[in-house]
Each structure stands twice: as structure tokens, then as C-alpha cells.
Specification:
The chain has 469 residues and is of the alpha/beta class. It has three domains: 7-177, 3-Layer(aba) Sandwich (Rossmann fold); 184-432, N-(1-d-carboxylethyl)-l-norvaline Dehydrogenase, domain 2 (Orthogonal Bundle); 438-469, Up-down Bundle (Single alpha-helices involved in coiled-coils or other helix-helix interfaces). It has 20 helices and nine strands. The chain starts with 6 loop residues before the first strand and ends in a 19-residue tail after the last helix.
Length: 469
């Protein structure tokens, strides 16, 4: 029996197994491939009906069982493994077949692979998939980029398996080449920023207001019912309730304060610097994970230096300030990521529709939030909007909340509570909304020691001064 299954997937780990079962649940037949025989058996057993879901360890059997043009998704770790799988499949494929990389590959790797496979008559897509293992099973947000015509073969499957927001599928063709992987990379950068901010607000509530875990749960749960409604705020509220099954008390208090990372946040930050786009809320989120890894050094430093005695704040007042400050900093973090996407679209020829991106992030993905509906509307009204802070929709939202951020940043600094994500968001806002910055002094310094020249406010041209020592 050959050419019978609609969709193929290589990599039957948790994400891959859940995604392929999602495909089968939506009336498409699916065939899996993995070198691990136990994973193959597990999929067949969980699928329940080999006519709908089947799998094999043999690449040739896998390819022969897929209908034309073959649609093969890879959910394997980014890097050399992706190249190895492609080389293994390539001799077995026909012209017009489609390979989809659903992992977090760096966007330049996707460009390289697309050019290579295009020369062999095979279409290659980079498709970001967000939502974790649960999202893969129940409906993720999917961000595909590649050949527009070839995407039409994949579109019905992706639209069926994706998350839905008020009935609309959270997937859209984003652009050529590596557009999909690039958007997913920036999505993850925004994710880093939002996670850092939610943790900082927890810290200030706990240290500044002596909030118990029950109170923290109730606070975050209440926020999730309002304008801060989001996946990250929702799961944070649930985290504070989780009992420790290996001991007494709540699990959150037993977890080591060292945050790991897989690199996508760092890639976002590095590429933003290459483009010349400021994303300080994302930059500091990456840096804080790196700083958190220095646990032993932090313990020694804590013993060497005196810290301020925290002056407690009224709980109700602190909770209100925290909600406003978190909402403000969420807006700023999305602003920075979307600014990077808009600039990268021009630089790399993606022709991204920012409103469409915000739209498919409204459900399924890790950074889904009620705020994205307003962001979608803002970019629908002005598709050339260079920065979200310039949208009339957001002026009042920011004006109403920025003062709370100022109070909390000041409170944190005075009481030794680190709030780097919040303070970087505030600094970005103050700098972006300042018509005059002190960088004239930097230009003078550069010209003084290196003859790097400068421009003037009062006349056109490039100038250099022989500075008197």
C-alpha cells in the first residue's frame, strides 16, 4: 500500500506525537517516522486506527506511504539534525514535494536550506509552531514561510489543526524564505520579555507586600480576568497553587532560581542589534537568565554587601501599582518585538503584515493575550505604523499606566528589589518619547578622539572640529 497518507511527520517526541495526533483528529490521515522503535509503537498505540495514524522507523517506507505532493514536517532539534534528516529524505522525494521545518531553526539556516532544496525541485518551509506540547495536541499558533504556491497544499491541514480565535484559524502564510522562522524567533524574544516581567512583579509583591502564595494566585487570577488576560498570567496564577509532591508547602518555593534557555531569545537580541533596532526589554530578559545561572557567585556576593531593609507597602496600593506597571511593560515589550519585525521585513524582503501576525498570536501560542486584539486593530488601521507607541489606540493606555511603572521602579531601586525588565521598559519609553537626547555629547566625544564627524541642528552637512586640548 503506497501513497495513501495525507501528511508525514519526522520526529515522534512529545511535540511530534501530539501534532500528528492533532492532524488525525481533524480528518487527515498521517504517517510518522522516527528511528526510535518505542516512539513509533507509542504513536500507533495511541492513534488507535492505523488507517488514520501509522508510523515506521524506515525512511523509504515512510516516504512511499505519503500522497503527492508529499507534505513532510520535521519536528526535530534545530541544527545539524535538520540537515541530516533532509539528506536522508532527499533521494526518496519527487519534484514538487514539500519539507516543513517545524522547529526553532535560526532563520539564516532556513534561507540556506530553502535555496539548496529549491535547486533540487523540492519546496522547503520554515514554520514556527508555538503552544508547547499541549498546544501541538489541541491547537497551536503556526507561522509558516516559504513558497506561496506550495503553501496552498499545506494550508488546509494547518488551518484545521491550528488554534482558533473566535472561529478564525491562528495560522497564515507570512512571507517568502525564512519569514516564518524569523517571526517565531521574535515571538520567542517577546516571550522572554513577558516571562521576565511576570516574575519581577511576583518578586515585588512578595518582598514589598508579603503576599502569600494564595494571595499571589488570587491576584494573578483576577488580573487574567481583565486587561492582562494572557496565557502567561494565567499559568502563573496556577503555579502559586501547586503543592510540592516531594515535600511540604508549595512547589514554587522549592524551585531553584536558575532559568535556562535554548537560544531563541538571544538570537532575537543579537539580530536586533544587527538591524539597529532597540529591544532593551528583551535584551535584559536574556541577560537575567544568564545572571541567574551565576547562583554560587550570587550567594557569595549577597554575603559581602548590605542590602536595604524593604519598607513594606500597603497591599491594595501595591497590587494596583503592579497591575498598571505590568500592563505598561507588556505593551512596551510587544512594541519592541513588532518594531523589529517591521524593520526585518524591509531588510530581508519578507513583506510581513504585522496585523496578520498579531492576529495569529491571539490564541494557541505562549504569548497569546487579550492585548493582541488591540494590537491587531492598530496595525489594521495603519499598516505602515513604525512603532506601536505612535498608534492613537495605545496613547491613552500608556499614559494611564506609565506613572505606576515610575513608582515601582523607584520603589524597587530604593529597597534593593531588582526590576530590570520594568526599568528597561520605562527607559525605552522615556527615550523613545524624548525629542532631545544627550547623544550630542557622544557625537562630540567621537569627533574629539577619532575625528568621526557630526551633524548639526542649525545647518545641513557633515562637520569636524579640531578640538582644543
Amino acid at each position: 500500500m503506497t501513497n495513501t497518507y495525507d501528511f508525514g511527520l519526522v520526529g515522534l517526541g512529545v511535540m511530534g506525537r501530539n501534532f500528528i495526533l492533532n492532524v488525525a483528529d481533524n480528518d487527515f490521515t498521517a504517517y510518522g517516522n522516527d528511528l526510535d522503535e518505542e516512539k513509533v509503537k507509542a504513536l500507533i498505540e495511541e492513534g488507535g486506527n492505523p488507517k488514520k495514524v501509522n508510523a515506521t522507523t524506515d525512511a523509504e517506507t515512510f516516504v512511499k506511504n505519503l500522497s503527492l505532493p508529499r507534505k513532510i514536517m520535521l519536528l526535530v532539534p534545530a541544527g545539524k539534525i535538520v540537515d541530516a534528516v533532509i539528506e536522508n529524505l532527499l533521494p526518496l522525494l519527487d519534484e514538487g514535494d514539500i519539507i516543513i521545518d517545524g522547529g526553532n531553526s535560526f532563520f539564516t539556516d532556513t534561507d540556506r536550506r530553502e535555496a539548496y532544496l529549491s535547486g533540487k525541485g523540492v519546496n522547503f518551509f520554515g514554520a514556527g509552531v508555538s503552544g508547547g506540547a499541549k498546544g501541538a495536541r489541541l491547537g497551536p499558533s503556526i507561522m509558516p514561510g516559504g513558497n506561496r504556491e506550495a503553501y496552498q497544499h499545506v494550508k488546509p491541514i494547518f488551518e484545521a489543526v491550528s488554534a482558533k480565535y473566535k472561529g478564525e484559524p491562528c495560522v497564515a502564510y507570512l512571507g517568502p524564505k525564512s519569514a516564518g522562522n524569523y517571526v517565531k524567533m521574535v515571538h520567542n524574544g517577546i516571550e522572554y520579555g513577558l516571562m521576565q516581567l511576570t516574575s519581577e512583579i511576583y518578586d515585588v509583591l512578595k518582598k514589598g507586600g508579603d503576599f502569600s502564595n494564595d494571595e499571589l494566585h488570587a491576584t494573578y487570577a483576577k488580573w487574567n480576568e481583565g486587561r492582562l488576560q494572557s496565557f502567561l498570567v494565567e499559568i502563573t496564577s496556577e503555579i502559586f497553587e501547586q503543592e510540592d509532591n516531594l515535600g511540604e508547602g508549595r512547589l514554587v518555593d522549592k524551585i531553584l532560581d536558575k532559568a535556562k534557555q535554548k537560544g531563541t531569545g538571544k538570537w532575537t537580541s543579537q539580530n536586533a542589534m544587527d538591524l539597529g533596532i532597540p529591544v532593551p526589554s528583551i535584551d535584559i530578559a536574556v541577560s537575567m537568565r544568564e545572571l541567574s545561572a551565576l547562583k554560587e557567585e550570587r550567594i557569595k556576593a549577597d554575603e559581602l554587601y548590605d542590602r536595604p531593609t524593604v519598607v513594606k507597602m500597603d497591599k491594595a496600593k501595591l497590587e494596583k501599582l503592579a497591575e498598571n506597571a505590568l500592563y505598561f511593560s507588556f505593551i512596551i515589550t510587544y512594541t519592541q518585538g513588532l518594531h523589529q519585525l517591521a524593520d526585518a521585513s524591509k531588510e530581508y524582503g519578507y513583506d510581513l503584515d504585522i496585523s496578520e501576525i498579531a492576529k495569529i498570536w491571539r490564541a494557541g501560542c505562549i504569548i497569546r493575550a487579550g492585548l493582541l486584539a488591540d494590537i491587531t486593530d492598530a496595525f489594521k488601521k495603519n499598516s505602515n505604523l513604525p512603532n506601536l507607541l505612535l498608534s492613537p489606540t495605545f496613547v491613552n493606555k500608556v499614559q494611564e499606566t506609565v506613572d505606576a511603572a515610575r513608582v515601582l521602579v523607584s520603589y524597587g531601586a530604593t529597597n534593593g528589589i531588582p526590576l530590570p525588565g520594568l526599568s528597561n521598559s520605562l527607559t525605552y519609553f522615556d527615550a523613545y518619547t524624548s525629542s532631545r537626547l544627550p547623544l550630542n555629547v557622544i557625537q562630540a566625544q567621537r569627533d574629539y578622539f577619532g575625528s568621526h564627524t557630526y551633524e548639526r541642528l542649525d545647518r545641513e552637512g557633515i562637520f569636524h572640529t579640531e578640538w582644543e586640548e
